[in-house]
Structures are given as C-alpha cells and as structure tokens.
Amino acid sequence: MRKTVSWTSEVLHNLGGKKVVTGSDGFRLDCDLNAARIIFIKSLVENFSTNLGNTPSVI
Fold first, then answer.
1. Phi, psi at residue 17, to the nearest 5°?
2. CA-based angle 7:10:15, to the nearest 5?
C-alpha cells in the first residue's frame, strides 16, 4: 500500500486501513484516487525521461 500523499510527497506512517488520505495542508482525497494519481504521475515522469533520452542533440 502506498503511504505517500500524491500532492505533497509526504509519507504517512499511520495510514492503516483508512479510506481517505489527508495531507498536512488539510486536503483530503480517496485512497484509490491518490494511488491512481501517483501511478499516473510516475508513468508521465518515466515516459518523459525515456523519450528525452532518445531526442537528437541540437548542438
């Protein structure tokens, strides 16, 4: 189970079986949506860095 808050990257050690993730800023999000957001952001970052490495040099 992911214990990372997707919008602040803070780690929650006391998440347990809660259905809602609450960040230190008070914003709340359903655990499943939070996990989906983390996976989406991770795939964007990995895809961008992979494509960036294959880009021809302009120099």
1. -100, 20
2. 100
